Amino acid sequence: MEQVALYIDFENIAISAEEAYGRCDIERIVRVAESYGRCIVKHAYGDWTRFTRYRQELLEQAIDLTQLFRYGNYTKKNSADIVMAVDVIETALTNPSLTTFVLVTGDSDFTAVARKLRSYGRRVVGIGLQDATSDLLVRSCDDFVIYDGLMDRDERSSTFQLNEARQFVLAALQSLLQTNTGGRVPTADLAAEIATRHPELDIAKLGFASLAHFLEAQKEVVLIAGPGKEPLVAFRSAYLARHEIDQTLQYRTALSTAGFGLVDRETRQDVLQALYSLLSSEPGLHTLDGAIRQLKEQYDGANLLRSRDDIQEVAQLIKQAGVLASQPESWELDSLTLLPDLSQSAFVRSCESVYVAVLVQRNLDIDEEALARLLYGRADALEEVKALRELAVDAQTDMNGAAPLGNGHKLPRHLAENQDARIALQDLVHWRLEEKPSLEEAARLNSEGLEIRTADFEQARVHFLKAAKMMYLLLLDKQPGASLMDMEWYLASYCAATAGAHFSRRNYPRAILYYQAFFAIVKETEPVWDRVRKLVPPMLSFYFTIAPNEFNDLLKVPPGRTHPARLCVLLHKHHSPQVRRRWLELAKEIVRINPALLRGIIQRLAFLEDEDQLPGSLETRTVLTRLLNGEDVTEELEWDGLDFTEGEAIRGSSVEEYA
After folding, report:
1. How far apart are CA 361 and CA 651, in angstroms?
2. Prediction pTM value
3. 3-state DSSP call for residue 107?
4. Torsion of CA 450, 454, 457, 463, to 10 degrees
5. Beta strand pairing status for 64-67 and 143-146?
6. DSSP character for 436?
7. Residue pLDDT, tens place only, 204-262
């Protein structure tokens, strides 16, 4: 087996990952490194007084931590680079058995290190964020893994998780076999079917040279030599004997695309019971993320094997289970309190019913025996499934809500009554669709929109709107597989692209309407949040940038690569009272539409104040907190003369956090 060395420039990767996803997932990074062989060297470099929240997870992964102390007010950016580079080269020279070096960083300073390692005959693998990685570094590595692809279940054009890809391929094969009496199909036919059903699926991005190589790694199928040496694909007889292809594969696919990984019954119920005990014994104390960390520590302390991913997958069920006394604005910021008099068994059933609710909302036929095998591992668990189904139907969100947009236009109440989303909803229902709607065509249009949205706002917005209209019509027709969450995802993407189109034309009044529609749709407590959360920071930054742009006083920073918290510092201390006033007006609208977004900015400002000692962060956090609390902040329009430069305000943002 190949021997691997893993080196993590932690400050580089963690800051960027937190801005995009809220946290840096160490376990996924280690998993990538271990996919190349036995990982015998693991080092991470950073100031661990700044990243105390990660130390336990790093130690769990047996990663050695190298402390890099800070000098003065700001982090010395090159300190990690130099120490890590020296260690990497020294290890390469002293340990010839190491064949692969995995460098987790996006910093161009490691380009020379990568080239030197390759000159020694070592394989070099890089891991970094797409928007925070130097192109020079990517070209200097043998392989480069985009961190976004490991995290984003929503960015279908970027990557698919192996499990999702497997389910989609098996579903496509099963569809072809329904019309093929021979029980086997050419790989070329399977490839064409996959391209039609899921054009966004890229096998190469999963690490396989071809579809045939991918199929060889799947235990459910076998490749058979066909005429002309073209391989044929068939299911193994042992897999066919289980009779699970027709009955449960569509269920697994629906759950996976809805963002729910199915965890085995024993682990799932054990985690749910532990989660209930924690939240019921300490009400109003833990956020969802905090509860996940607490459970992981409890399992580790008891020496029980529970992966962080499994705990997180199970805990996600609480978001749609209806078991909380009050719905939070933010799963990351708000503490949770369970319904009074809620028993443990009722809590577990309500959470497990979310699986069934996903299938009901997608209009799938429910085979209770198949579902019993899927959820409980036995076909006779029919009473349990019936109980979950009753809960799921009672909680179903469908298209029979208010219809304020015209005769015949039905929308769920949470959308129909959303005045800020109204402009996008009107575009949706009034768009004349010439194509025949289908799930596959909607997915294709969305995938193409994702690929071109940064280069062509106009074309992308049309793709997204068509995809949303298709899903809307399919929902009205109760088409099996149609998803309200997907419709909201496509609609949010349409708002983002349309806002960008108006912004680029300097039509700021129209841009504001679509930015605000986007913020109204993508609330953190709605299922669509996980699909679009990466878009939220740049959308906020561009939205706030409208304040100086309206007065032709352009900032000297790129809004798409500057965190909105740092941008708010610039705008709070802007030299123009008009710009400051306009920025506060825009921020006040965020408080009205989606206050959790401003709370997230305030939390980030506290970090910038404590960890980076960023000038102006305290004052900016104070005024935004007062604004959030409904106070009058007009006196903040008077500039207090605090002296700092734009370069100081974006330090660690335009370069370290995004570039």
Report:
1. 46
2. 0.70
3. coil
4. -10
5. unpaired
6. P
7. 766 676 788 788 777 667 777 666 667 888 877 655 544 444 457 778 878 887 888 88
